[in-house]
Every structure is written in C-alpha cells, then in structure tokens.
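Worked Example 4.2. Consider the chain below.
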Amino acid sequence: MLRLVAVLVVAALLWMCWWIIGHSAYQRTLAAWMEQRRNDGWVADFSDISTRGFPNRFDTTMSDLTLADPGTGVAWSVPFVQFLSLAYRPHEVIAVLPDKHVISTRLEALQVTHDSARASIYLRPSTDLALKRARLVLKDPRIHSSRGWTVSSTELRFAVEAMPVRENTYRVGMELLELSFPDTLRRALNSSQTFPVKIGVVRADGEFGLDAPLDRRFLEGANLGIRRLNLTDLTVRWGEFSFSATGNLTVSEDGVPDGEIMLRAAGWRTPLDLAETTGLIEPALRNALETAFELMSRHEDVLELPLVFSRGQVSLGLVPLGRAPRLQAW
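Applying the procedure from the previous section yields the following structure tokens:
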C-alpha cells in the first residue's frame, strides 16, 4: 500500500513539474515572439500574459494585444486572445477571440464584430511546430469602416490543411454565406428592385505549393513564396448571376505566373445592368461591352474565357491585358 502511495505521489509531482514547465514555456514563447516582432520594427504590445488550467490544461490569455506591421501598414488590436490546450497535447490549440477587433490600414480603420468565433490550430509535435491544419468559423461577422460603409455575412468559414503526400503543399478553403453590400450600393439595389441585396455564396477551394513549410519560422518573420496554385473551385452566386473559375498556375522564383484559369460567367448581363444602374459605366459603354461579350460567348447567357498567363503577360481569351501580376513572397 505504501509503495502504491509513493508511486502516486511521485507521479503527481512529475505531472506538477510538467505543468509548471509547460506553463513557463507557453509564456516565454509568446513573450519572445512579441519581442522579436519589436526587434523587426513592429508595434507589438500587450498588458499581460497569464496561464491557468492546472493540472490538465494550459489556458493562456494575452490582454490588450496590438500588432502592427510597418511594411504593410496593417495593425490589429483586440482586448484579449486566449489559447487553450490540453496539458498532454499542447500542440493542439483552440483559440478564443473576442467579439470585437479593430483592423487598421493606411487608408481606414475597420471594426470587425461577430456573434461567435471558433478557431483551432493543430501543429506537428516537433521543434519546428509545422502546421498540420487550422479552422476558423465566424457567425454573423460584420465590418464597419471608418469611411462609413458596412458589410456583413451570416457565416465565414476558413480552413487550411497540409497535404501529406505533397511537400510544402496546403489545401485552403473559404466560404462566405449571404454577403451583404455596403449601404450605398444596397440602397441602389433596393431602388432598382431587380437585384438581390445579398450575394448568396462566395466559395474558394484550392491547393498552394510553397517554397517552404508553414512552421515557426514563418511566424518568426521568414518569407514564403508561392510555387504552384491549383484552383479547384472559385464560385460566386448572386441571384441569376453566377461566376466560377478553375485552373492551374506555376510560379517562377521571381513571382511570374504561368498557366491558365478558365472563367465562366452565367447571367453575365446582370452585373452590366448593375454597373449601369449605379452609374459606374455609361449606357454607351454598357452596350459596347454587351456586344463584345455576345461575340465571345458560346451560349446566349453563358460566357467562358481562359485567363492565360504566359511569358510575363496575361490575356483574356484573345484580348491582351498587359503585364501579369507578380506573386511575391509574403
């Protein structure tokens, strides 16, 4: 009996030591990452880091967090962020986000709110902490701009997952449901009584091949370049109008894409009507575009054209559009 008690006491002490070590590691890692960002010229501020959950959890909270990248001019401020994990599986993390964020750019400030948020991050249990998969679901997200416009959606879903059979390749998916327009455009849609005031679905699914894995080095500031893009599905459905795109691109080391994306638009007259109704284009230009699209369309209401990237140039069907965009490292 005494031997059993001794074993239990030793096991409890070892577990307590493990929790204390993990507790310290969590806080040191987050504090060191913030310090590294400051050394890189970022604004990286917080008021407190605390970890609770003994004996079976690591529940870490960062309070009054602000991150600002001087290179892009993008800043993110939140009252808190929590990272929750089991003590025996610290590489599987659930993130708890507040219901209000502020994202600032050089042009405007965006206040992001939502009714609920669920996020999870699964890392490989190694020193590199390579990403295995991540998920984010926002219920009723809303964006309010300092310039006066507002957009909203009933749900946002985002996911990324490492492909086990392809090195440095990740499948990325995103879906927006019932996406609303800014107020001024929504009023124009209401007055026309022709177009829905919300886009029903915006969906994207594809695979990205990178030149390095998504791991702790990326979080520490290492740049990643895109080498391949396999676009499985890009879909927009808005009333009678639908748009889709599929295709494959390869990208050179200097960011030049090569390949083809097939574009398909059904009910393509709808956005032309909207552009004319809202005053974005003159009736004469609208008629000219309609005539051109009619000549290019295979069916009366369906337009299919390849977006071709070749030798640093891009063209839509037989129409040259100019220099192709560079997909630079990020």
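The longest strand covers residues 57-69. Helices lie at 2-39, 183-192, 216-219, 269-277, 283-296. Compare this with Example 4.1 before moving on.
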